[in-house]
Write a structure and sequence with these properties.
Order of helices and strands: EEEEHHEEEEHEEEHHH
Radius of gyration: 21 Å
Shape: flat
Helix content: 25-40%
Bound molecules: zinc ion
Number of strands: 11
Largest sheet: 4 strands, mixed
Distance between the termini: 28 Å
Number of helices: 6
């Protein structure tokens, strides 16, 4: 079911719930309202109109976030490593590319004529390396805590997920962008994916396992969703 409020389309989803729940979703700012089963459309419409200012501010926030996202790999641009902000410093040198952290600078050394795509490629490879160093230790730690055994792990660019796991092969995939977040966020994702080897779906059993093994996981999830360059759309 749908209705329009000016130029805003509102999707109505009826559910077995007691209260109305309004949400604005990235990337385009789609509006969704979950309602109890037998609520009439007028009530829903009046409620939504009362929240119009909030809806518009959420949509504005999403539009701004979207503009913020693409990095151009320019001098003094902000880049994050393990949750800490660094300023990009570009160095031209006719040698193999190199990345180094020096105080608050992320020094990206490239051959002259390296274009933006090359800068991105070198930096992404470096982020992947950072993860490949840390993830095996975290997997070993959480295999013991949760009592599971994993297969291989991969670090890769993912558009809508922080991590994933294949229940049959027990392979774990980690999003390259996690190297930009505080280390606890990566640890949370590792614990989350390994927990899926005991429980496939996000049900009560899954939550109980997470609560038992990592009581502060909600805090880490919030951190992950709040930090720059992230959207609410992430699922994991
Ligand atoms: Zn999950």
């Amino acid at each position: 079911m749908q209705f329009m409020l000016g130029d805003i389309t509102v999707d109505v989803i009826q559910k077995d719930i007691k209260n109305l729940h309004l949400s604005v979703h990235p990337p385009a700012g789609k509006v969704r309202i979950s309602t109890p089963m037998r609520m009439d459309l007028d009530t829903i419409r009046v409620f939504t109109i009362s929240k119009l200012a909030w809806i518009k501010s959420q949509q504005k926030k999403l539009r701004e976030q979207e503009r913020e996202t693409p990095r151009e790999y320019l001098e003094r641009e902000s880049h994050y490593v393990w949750g800490k902000r660094y300023l990009l410093k570009l160095v031209e040198k006719d040698a193999a590319p190199n990345v180094e952290l020096k105080h608050n600078k992320l020094v990206l050394q490239l051959r002259p004529a390296a274009n933006q795509a090359k800068r991105q490629e070198v930096l992404d490879a470096w982020y992947r390396e950072q993860l490949k160093e840390v993830v095996p230790h975290l997997i070993a730690k959480w295999e013991k805590i949760i009592g599971v055994k994993t297969g291989k792990f991969f670090v890769q660019k993912m558009k809508t997920k922080w991590g994933s796991c294949s229940p049959v092969k027990k392979n774990i995939r980690i999003n390259t962008d996690l190297a930009k977040k505080p280390l606890q966020c990566l640890e949370y994702i590792v614990a989350h994916e390994l927990t899926h080897l005991r429980e496939r779906s996000h049900n009560e059993h899954f939550t109980a396992l997470m609560d038992a093994h990592m009581p502060q996981w909600r805090q880490y999830r919030e951190m992950l969703n709040k930090l720059p360059l992230t959207y609410q759309q992430w699922d994991y």
